[in-house]
Amino acid sequence: MTHKIILLIIATLLVASCDNSSDYFSVNEKETESLKIDTTSYYKILESNTIEYRNYKRSSVVPSLTRATATNGGNDIIVYGYTKKSSTGYKKYALDKNLKSILGLYPNAFYICEFITATYELTIPGISNRTVRFSDVDSPNCGLFPDYTKDEYNLRGYSYTRKGDNISLVTKIIHVKCDQSGVNYDIWFPRKPEELQWIYNIEQK
Question: Which of 163, 189, 176, 199 is closest to 55 using CA atoms?
Fold first, then answer.
């Protein structure tokens, strides 16, 4: 009986270690071993993103100083955080080996992750009647491009779409919560949603 109680305490501590950040797991989600391992689902996410954002335009990856010499000027504007975000929810993934190497994760382990879409909604009067010009700007402190590939973990920026005077900027974040045994990592790659920095240019015509 004592042996069973000790095992129960150890199991409880392992699972609890996956919940020492600001995110909250429900009781069922804390049972990390019950989450299905889908070795193809990560690549399905990448494929889905490619389709969903195929009509979006990527922001420049040219440094702002270089870009400024090739434009007519205008004002660079920096905004932070996000106006809305969504998450895939936590699931057990066999991540891409390149990503695990960059994050310093063990190559043969599975990880509990969520994939976050962060959006910054803008309304800029004058764009639709062309009295104001919007231009994307290199944003090295943003997230991953929403249609990033497994060879683009080093790139930072956003993609955007416009309708009238409304512009939606979108970026992606990978949150590695813990491994399948409950060991906590709490890695936000490339940064937390509230730390995002978006840069764009507005020019009066």
Answer: 163
Asked whether 56 and 161 are in contact (CB, 8 A), the reply is yes
Other CB atoms within a 10 A radius of the CB of residue 196 amount to: 24
Q: Taking every pair of C-alpha atoms in the chain, what is the biggest distance, in angstroms?
A: 80
Structure token pair of residue 96 = 């891409």
Cα 204 to the center of its chain, rounded Å: 32
Tell me the CA distances in angstroms from 200 to 12, 53, 139, 159, 169, one per residue in order.
48, 19, 8, 11, 10
What are the residues whose beta carbons fall under 8 Å from the beta carbon of 8, sequence distance 6 or more? Answer: none
Alpha-carbon torsion 37, 95, 50, 53, what sign? positive
Decide if 135 contacts 199 (C-beta within 8 A): no
C-alpha 120/C-alpha 80 separation (Å) is: 9
What gap in Å lies between CA 25 and CA 5, rounded to an integer?
A: 24
Q: What is the pLDDT of residues 78-135, one digit of tens each?
A: 999 999 999 999 999 989 999 999 999 999 999 999 999 999 999 999 999 999 999 9
For 25, the token pair is 């797991």
- Each residue of 165-191: b (16+ CB within 10 Å) or e? eebbbbbbbbbbbbbbebebbebbbbe
What are the pLDDT digits (tens) for 62-94? 765 444 434 456 899 999 999 999 999 999 998
Spatial CB neighbours of 43, under 8 Å, sequence gap ≥ 6: 96
Return the structure tokens found at 187.
Answer: 């890695």
